[in-house]
Design goal:
single chain, 376 residues, mainly beta, six-stranded mixed beta barrel, six-stranded mixed sheet, 6 helices, globular, hydrolase, disulfide bond
């Protein structure tokens, strides 16, 4: 199926990767009695001078192989970053030792590079070196792809992560000196249609998937609504309005610049909007997060985003997360504030997995647009 919605027999050029839903770093550490501070999730994209451990990274991860013979890893497929990296034997930090490590000496196709890099995410940071090797994604084989290999991963945040690395799917302008894997596949003609699409199931069971070069019509209802990318660095779009319980507001009347981020579990909004929304929900921040009475979920308002002239409602059943400690339920609101940054022109709105679990999403590099449709 083409990104334009026309049917094509393109099985050799389309790859579907099953995804596993895992707990966020925040949730996993909360269950261990460690409470991460609630800070700006957009710090994922900022340098260390303003970095803090927000833990706001969601986990829908799948398989990818590197080397000859292939060494398999579970990676986070992230539209909010653009680099590919995995843990390596060069790293002996605790975070690396709890995951699979790539060993260049075991690969006959590996070539070294003198390049070094640093990555800063809301959920942790790392340093590494670049190398070149064959990357296998489903039936797609990409020779001599530049890959980041971790050397240091300080702290404990990545220790509890269930993935061994991150596959960034944002634009090359966000990748520094590395050419993103998606761009290599496009330039080498390894996928017929330059799109990647996500189906993120709310269920902990199997069913989530990311597909390269195709749109899976069995995963959504109706037609895709397309909206243009407004900045080709992240997958940034303009939201035309934001409503609470279908009540119009002045927010986004001039358009709200918004990042669509599969590597983020929540919805982020400007601090002023967040404060108003929390007051309306009668929610106060605690050590555990923005907590609500689990018995009152159905009485909470629906949030609606207008994109491409179409309303996309997000019910409370989507933005309230339920966790269990000692058999007792605990409910928190997955809505967080962002703060403006003078040094970085970042979107103050982020649509993460809370939104993307409700809507099938297509990221189209040919026409630089994002498509949404109600997920099945």
């Amino acid at each position: 199926v083409k990104c334009r919605g026309q049917i094509s027999l393109c099985a050799p050029c389309a790859v579907l990767v099953p995804l596993i839903k895992g707990k966020s770093i925040r949730e996993a550490m909360r269950e261990k009695g460690v409470f991460l501070p609630y800070v700006n999730a957009a710090l994922k994209y900022q340098p260390p001078a303003v970095l803090a451990a927000s833990g706001a990274t969601a986990f829908y991860y799948g398989a990818l192989s590197i080397g000859s013979p292939p060494q398999s890893f579970m990676v986070l497929f992230d539209t909010g970053s653009a680099n590919l990296w995995v843990d390596s034997v060069y790293c002996n930090d605790k975070a690396c030792n709890t995951h699979k490590k790539f060993d260049p000496k075991r690969s006959s196709t590996y070539t070294s590079s003198y390049g070094r890099f640093s990555m800063w995410y809301g959920a942790g940071d790392m340093d590494g070196i670049y190398g070149y090797d064959t990357v296998t994604l489903g039936s797609i084989v990409v020779p001599q792809q530049e890959v980041g290999l971790s050397v240091t991963e300080p702290g404990d945040n990545f220790v509890v992560a269930k993935f061994d690395g991150i596959l960034g799917l944002a634009y090359p302008s966000d990748a520094g000196d590395q050419r993103p894997l998606m761009d290599t596949m496009m330039q080498e003609g390894l996928i017929q249609y330059n799109c990647v699409a996500f189906y993120l199931s709310r269920s902990d069971r199997a069913g989530s998937e990311v597909s390269f070069g195709e749109v899976d019509y069995s995963k959504f209802r109706g037609q895709l609504t397309w909206t243009p990318v407004t900045r080709q660095k992240w997958w940034q779009i303009s939201v035309q309005s934001f409503k609470i319980n279908n009540q119009p507001s002045s927010w986004c009347s001039q358009g709200c610049e918004t990042m669509v981020d599969t590597g983020n579990p929540a919805i982020f909004m400007p601090n002023s909007v967040h404060q108003y929304t929390m007051n309306l929900l009668k929610v106060q921040p605690t050590q555990d997060g923005y907590m609500v009475d689990c018995s009152q979920i159905n009485s909470l308002p629906t949030l609606t985003f207008t994109i491409g002239g179409v309303d996309f409602p997000v019910p409370p059943s989507a933005y309230v997360e339920t966790t269990y400690r000692g058999g007792s339920p605990s409910c928190s609101v997955a809505l967080y504030p962002t703060q403006p940054s003078a040094a970085h022109d970042l979107p103050l709105w982020i649509l993460g997995d809370v939104f993307l679990q409700e809507y099938y999403s297509v990221f189209d590099r040919t026409y630089n647009r994002v498509g949404f449709a109600p997920a099945v």
